[in-house]
Amino acid sequence: MNRHTSRPVVLCLSGHDPSGGAGLQADIEALLAQGCHAAPTVTALTVQDTVDVADFRVLDRAWVLAQARAVIADLPIAAVKLGMLGSVEMVDTVLELMRQLPGVPLVCDPVLRAGGGGSLGPDDVGYAIRERLFPVAAIATPNLPEARILAELPNGTPDECAEKLLPYIRHLLITGGHGDEVEVVNRLYSRDGQTWTSSCQRLPGSYHGSGCTLASALAGRLALGEALPSAVQSALDYTWRCLRDAEAPGHGQYIPRRLPLDAS
User: Which of 72, 100, 223, 253 is most buried, with most CB under 10 Å away?
Assistant: First the structure.
């Protein structure tokens, strides 16, 4: 049997979305598209569709630890991607797992709201992510509404939110697209004072799983060894193409097309 060079493995700790638009399915598809292998650990089960989330249940801490530890013992983890955690206890669970992965880059997508606006955890989960997980993460990728929650600035600008959050994290990518601007502006902030912006054409409609797609693609690029600024641009470009080619299989938001039609 032929043995090929192994693809980089990305450990994903995210919720399950039964519509397939966001959560672990988004992680898996986006990482496959980067040439990586996704190792999905389920943190929560949700009741949601392409319109909004109706309910969720966070898994027992012991089950999450068992899933992740089995993967960590067996596979060489090149990066970790966080999605929905849903509880403060799950934040501490991830922190415990990261102690087993020194030097492995962590991409933190602080999932606090579904695309339709429904809550995926109380605000104190966001504050726990900020206080405990941001310090061990390579980068966080909140959209502006999430950044405002994390910074406790309900009407804060991206610059104001970044100023409040950078003491906790080395790099912060605040994504645009949640207002009525013609052009979407994404801003990368670094603790050393450097800033970088990337703009793209605003696409019509709203999308389910765009944040998961971006964070997973970024984790994949880092797992492949790409430098952070370049990895951010690669992930943004990939995500925009996924949204451009999105489809609307249900009654709600568009779902990004993360894999080509002929993917097997």
Answer: 223
Q: Which domain holds residue 195?
A: 10-245
User: Residues 197-214: pLDDT tens digits?
Assistant: 988 888 888 899 999 999
Beta strand residue intervals within 6-127, DSSP E: 9-16, 37-48, 53-58, 77-82, 106-108
Nearest-angstrom CA–CA distance, 129 and 85: 9
Tell me if 1 is assigned to some domain.
no
Residue from 245, 235, 169, 250 nearest 31 by CA: 235
Average pLDDT, the chain: 91
Sign for the pseudo-dihedral over CA of 170, 165, 161, 191: negative
- The answer to whether residue 173 is domain-embedded is yes
Residue type for position 39: A
Kindly state the helix (H) or strand (E) to which residue 5 belongs, with its residue range: none
pTM of the model: 0.93
Tens digit of each residue's pLDDT (9 = 90 or more) over 63-114: 999 999 999 999 999 999 999 999 999 999 999 999 999 999 999 999 876 5
For residue 131 the two structure tokens come to 């206080």
Q: What CATH number did the domain enclosing 212 receive?
A: 3.40.1190.20
Maximal CA-CA distance, the chain: 59
